[in-house]
Amino acid sequence: MKFEHLALNVPDVTAMGRWYAQHLGLTVLRRREDAPFTQFLGDETGRVFLEIYSNPSAPCLDFTATHPLVLHVAFFVTDAAAERTRLVAAGAKPFSEETAPDGTRLMFLRDPWGVALQLCQRAKPFPGF
């Protein structure tokens, strides 16, 4: 068994998919042009890891009211401060940051729809990063 994806029901899948592609470097690997406008997003490895859609059959989470420690989408970065600055200029909102005892820097932001994003500048990256 292999992990395929995490899915989020979001209020504006088209705009969110565009923002994630432009500012997070994701690629739309598969898209549905009719409701619920599903998009499967992947990183530079070409693997799907996030599905977003706007399906009125279920409520969207109130992402802004959900603490980032409950739900977040994490990205490995080599310079968390620079990436945070770039993403804030693109409409993200900073939430918190910390440096772990091993020197790992973790920064939380919220995308323009309130979804928590985490920037992980790891002192010792996981294999494959």
Structural features, described:
The protein is an alpha/beta fold and 129 residues long. It has two domains: 6-53, Signal recognition particle alu RNA binding heterodimer, srp9/1 (2-Layer Sandwich), CATH 3.30.720; 68-121, 2,3-Dihydroxybiphenyl 1,2-Dioxygenase, domain 1 (Roll). Helices cover 17% and strands 33% of the residues. It has two helices and eight strands; from the N terminus they run E-H-E-E-E-E-H-E-E-E. Strands 1-4-3-2 form a four-stranded mixed beta sheet, with helices on one face. A hairpin with a 7-residue loop joins strand 2 (27-31) and strand 3 (39-42). The protein is globular, with a radius of gyration of 15 Å. The relative contact order is 0.19.
Structural class of the secondary elements?
A: alpha/beta
Count of distinct strands: 8
Could you name the CATH homologous superfamily of the largest domain?
Answer: 2,3-Dihydroxybiphenyl 1,2-Dioxygenase, domain 1
Rg over CA atoms: 15 Å
- Helicity level, as a percent range? 10-25%
- The pLDDT mean sits at 96
N-to-C SSE series? EHEEEEHEEE
The strand line-up of the biggest sheet is 1-4-3-2
Q: How much of the sequence is in beta strands?
A: 25-35%
Question: Which CATH first-tier class of the largest domain would you pick?
Answer: Alpha Beta
Distance between the termini: 22 Å
User: Strand count, sense and closure of the main sheet?
Assistant: 4 strands, mixed
Pick out the low-confidence regions.
Answer: none
Q: Number of DSSP helices?
A: 2
